[in-house]
Amino acid sequence: MKKRSMKITKQDVTAALRTSLPIIVTFIVLGTGYGILMQEHGYGPIWSLLSGIMIFSGTAQFVSVTMLTGGSLIMAAVTALMVSARHIFFSISMIGRYRNENKRKWYLYYALCDETYAMLSKDDGPKGVNTSSYRFLVTLFDQLSWILGSVLGGCLGSVLNFNSEGIDFAMTALFATVFLQQWIDSKCHIPAILGLLATLACRLLFGRDLFLIPAMVIIIAVLTIMRRTIEERSQINDDND
């Protein structure tokens, strides 16, 4: 297959902004909370900036703040790896979509967070846009909004006093919101139900600290096996509409 064009047009930017806007707003708010939390634990805006560039995993970043404060850098790194291991499976599932993205694919894999994955999990972008540029811009806008919010929060935290208790729950709220939106938008709920059941089963079997990776392995494996069934069910639902 031919490599995709890397040209970016105004239409591509507009379409990507329209798709990313809910995530952009959310990431700025959540990133601000993270920046405030970092500042309260002694890490200024520069640390939030570097964290957003090098880690870019909201859950891992929130979790690692207290560990960094305690001086356990190795434990913070291991925890961040375990919490963000699901991104490996996200990237694996996107190999087929990204294989013709030229050099962009490395950034697309690197910056693929939960919300970006949810937005780009469909095979193509909106009609009339360059799919490659659209994917790149959605990914870029999402990461930049998180970084902007983190730096803003770090700056605010340095001049204002905040009670940071409960800020880290914002990520849980975001995941719940994304799940509900995907449920509303999708006509086939098999993947969502499978994800809930696999996660619940692994949570009960492996405990709070070890359930994530087994759950992701099960979800990826079953979705791969049931891919044709899911696609056929989605097509039937589309035809009925």
Key features of this structure:
241 residues, 0% strand, 2 domains, mainly alpha
Describe this structure in words.
This protein has 13 helices and no strands. By secondary structure, it is mainly alpha-helical. Helix 1 packs parallel to helix 9 (131-159), helix 2 packs antiparallel against helix 9 (131-159) and helix 8 packs antiparallel against helix 9 (131-159). It has helices spanning 10-40, 45-54, 58-69, 73-83, 86-93, 95-98, 104-110, 114-120, 131-159, 170-185, 190-206, 212-225, 227-240. It has 2 domains: 10-167, no CATH class; 186-241, no CATH class. The model has no long low-confidence stretch (mean pLDDT 80). The two termini are 33 Å apart.
**Share of helical residues:** over 70%
**Mean pLDDT metric:** 80
Strand content: under 5%
- Radius of gyration computed on alpha carbons: 19 Å
Order of helices and strands: HHHHHHHHHHHHH
Global shape = globular
Helix and strand composition category: mainly alpha
Largest sheet: none
Instruction: Supply the number of structural domains.
Output: 2
Write down how many β-strands occur, each being a DSSP E stretch of 2 or more residues: 0
Report the end-to-end length measured between terminal Cα atoms: 33 Å
Helical segment tally? 13
- Outline the low-pLDDT stretches: none
